[in-house]
Amino acid sequence: MDFSKILTKWYLQNKRDLPWRNTVNPYYIWLSEIILQQTRVNQGLAYYEKFIVAFPTVFDLAKADENTILNLWQGLGYYSRARNLHFSAKYIVNERDGKFPATFKDLLKLKGVGDYTASAIASICYNEPCAVVDGNVYRVLARYYGIDIPINSTEGIKLFKKLAQDLIDTNDPATFNQAIMEFGAMQCKPKNPDCSICPFQNSCIAKEEKMVEILPIKDKKIKVTKRFFNYLVLISPMDRTLLNQRKQKGIWRNLYQFPLIETSKEIDISELIKMDELHKITNASNNDITLFNKKPIIHKLSHQHLSVNFWVINSDKEMENSISISDFDKYPVPILIHNFAEAYF
User: Fold this and answer.
1) pLDDT band, residue 318 (cuts 50/70/90)
2) Domain 225-344: which CATH class?
């Protein structure tokens, strides 16, 4: 059986009509790949379209203000992708005269571009036979060949990359790479794939050995950290509020947020009112503070689960460095804070 030919035939009959499949412009392909990292296609599509309208060329992206980029990115999460995108655009413009890297090796020099993204761009734009290996590819290969080596182990990463590279159609690597990713996304899905319509149903080891729901295998997950955030939403008589920019490394760097008190556990209003951190920000009394959400809002990130309370504090004084609530949308904020503002302001 010719795995590549069967896969390509399936792809040509079943592929989705997506805008980045109608171009070999490396800027557009790079943009789509960065957006689609850890993002579903149906969510990423709208962001891709917004970005190519706002920044039709790498020169436009390079000269853009970071806040503008982060604002457009709002809701996608993993904001380091947006910062790396901006950094690399400036590198391409300033160090390469706007010429996009044209080989796998040179693409790896772009910040935020790893093996998978470099392989995708190199194969789609330059016909370089570099196999992509993402979550979809791991799943297809693990099931078809019945491989139970953990995909996130050193051995697994090397094995699956070599296998994908051995299978790639060297005459048309772009189509092969897109086909195997599409097959994993649409046919060989993580849960309850319809094996009865799969073109590989008679040769798939996972189907034969009833391991479809087991493969691929991952090593134990990284421990999730629980954190407790208390946002102080100060409101002045002139409808102004305070926002701070997160400068420290970690989640949401360079995004804006309300003054934050992080605690070791969930607290109530009596505990909040006793905290020195609160009195450094405001002299509000118990009567001035109300809890916006009836129960903590749980916001799940890849390795952190945040338990969040929004404390609304009505101030009778004007605040230094405050902003008008009407200007709130000009500031890039985490989606958690955006959702609060949509509901409250």
Assistant:
1) confident
2) alpha beta
